[in-house]
Specification:
Helix content is 43%, strand content 22%. The chain has 281 residues and is an alpha+beta fold. The protein has two domains: 145 residues; 124 residues, Cathepsin D, subunit A, domain 1, CATH 2.40.70.
Length: 281
């Protein structure tokens, strides 16, 4: 007969869900704010109260877990496109099963008296320090597993990029590319590359003036333009760029300062219109 303390139950599952959602964000390269992580973790933690119910049969228990997992992911990552949500949900479930596998292994190997698993809910009656330690170990194990498994995989991830500048906004499909290492020379901020014609609606007047004015005297009087040197299979040179007012990736605002570099539209070929550096995540 186990005595279950509600504060420990909620604390344990809050930390576990927080780390599982962090692992999901890391694996899918999806940006997420800390407050959303906490919100999702709280939803998952509140659902852990099902441990107080009588033992639930396997099928209803799995259905409850499916719904709870969906609510947790939705609370953390918000509204997403169907395929993107399914991907986040699948990764979250994978991370959950991975964690549960470690817990069950500990259960069978050591049968600790302070560990209880009921209705697929984990209850650990341990000190906060040990709780944090065990949770971090599980999280690190997941990160190491992902790193080893994905070391030789090529990144070919796409996302929806939204750039707002003034009253205008641009929404395009972008490719996340580890090969894009461009940085604005002075600030060392990451640079998103996009075609000139594609970005025309958000391009500042200064850049348009710079590219249309031929007199060097007038060119030197135009401010607020930065230049980024680049080298690619198409050649080398410099790209004019400007600082974006707001950048959203999959409808999540980017909290970093980002510059937008303009290239020839022919440089970007494929089912995407912009190239995002992996570093931005």
């Amino acid at each position: 007969m186990h005595t279950i303390y509600i504060d420990i139950l909620l604390s344990v599952n809050l930390i576990i869900n927080y780390l599982l959602l962090s692992a999901t964000s890391f694996y899918t390269h999806t940006q997420i704010k800390v407050k959303r992580l906490i919100l999702g973790a709280l939803v998952g933690a509140m659902c852990s109260l099902t441990i107080l119910l009588p033992v639930i049969p396997f099928v209803p228990n799995m259905l409850i877990k499916i719904v709870v997992g969906g609510l947790t992911v939705f609370a953390a990552f918000g509204k997403k496109r169907t395929l993107e949500f399914i991907k986040l949900y699948a990764v979250f479930l994978t991370a959950t099963f991975f964690f549960c596998g470690i817990v069950i292994a500990l259960w069978f190997l050591f049968t600790p008296k302070n560990l209880l698993i009921k209705n697929s809910v984990v209850y650990l009656n341990i000190s906060p320090v040990m709780l944090i330690l065990y949770s971090v170990v599980c999280y690190c194990a997941f990160r190491i597993f992902y790193t080893i498994a994905g070391r030789h995989q090529a990144y070919d991830t796409y996302c929806v990029l939204t750039i707002r500048n003034g009253f205008n906004a641009l929404r395009v499909t972008a490719k996340i590319d580890t090969g894009n290492t461009l940085k604005e020379p002075f600030s060392q901020c990451p640079v998103i590359v996009i075609g000139r014609k594609t970005a025309e609606v958000i391009t500042p007047a200064e850049i348009i003036e710079y590219e249309t004015v031929t007199t060097l005297k007038y060119r030197t009087e135009i401010n607020n333009i930065r230049f980024v040197p680049f080298t690619s299979v198409n050649g080398e040179g410099i790209l004019p760029c400007f600082k974006a007012e707001e950048v959203y990736i999959d409808d999540i605002i980017c909290d970093k300062t980002v510059y937008i570099a303009l290239c020839k539209d022919s440089y970007i070929q494929g089912d995407f219109q912009a190239i995002i550096p992996y570093e931005i995540f």
